[in-house]
Amino acid sequence: MALVVCALAIGTVVAGGAAAGAKTASSGAALASLKITEQQVSIKQKGESAFAAAKEGQALHQGDTIKTDATGRAEIDYTDGSLTRLGASTVFTISKLTNERGGRQTQGTLSVGETWNRAAKVSETGSFEVKAGGTTAAVEGTAFVVKCVPATNGTQKVSCTVTAVVDNIQVSSDDWDVTSVTNAP
Length: 185
Known about the structure:
Blueprint: E1 4-12, E2 32-38, E3 41-44, E4 52-53, E5 59-60, E6 65-68, E7 73-78, E8 83-86, E9 91-100, E10 103-118, E11 127-132, E12 135-139, E13 143-150, E14 157-166, E15 169-173, E16 178-183
Parallel strand pairs: 10-11
Antiparallel strand pairs: 1-14, 1-16, 2-5, 2-7, 3-4, 3-6, 6-9, 7-8, 8-10, 9-10, 10-13, 11-12, 12-15, 13-14
């Protein structure tokens, strides 16, 4: 199996938010929960203006933003068995989380930091994606890592790397150019 690394030049960081007009599960039950693996994790729930201390096992919903500090780490466990792990100094928003008509739609927006993602099963009508600065990494395989590092020159630019861990991923962008794609031997 080949390891695919895509380096992406990302422009101005866009703060993540809820996708307009998206619906949550019809039962109202949470489709994700938070696992805190290292303390110093906070959450800004949809509609709130400030971050608050996150709690182990806390239900997560579309529009929630999770933030880790320099020592914090967390995991988002989705009810379908998929997961997103958040590294230190990461800001990640659950921008889409639905399960309508059996088509699970999971989408997160990474503002800064690093995520490790594993999709358990994606149906023909479902998706599992991570957006970072206008670029999208979508599952074709089952696991991938997205890492965004802020520029050190005082601009609001970040540089993101997407790495396929298992199988392949699809990286696309309407706003930015993929600057390199490397296949490992």
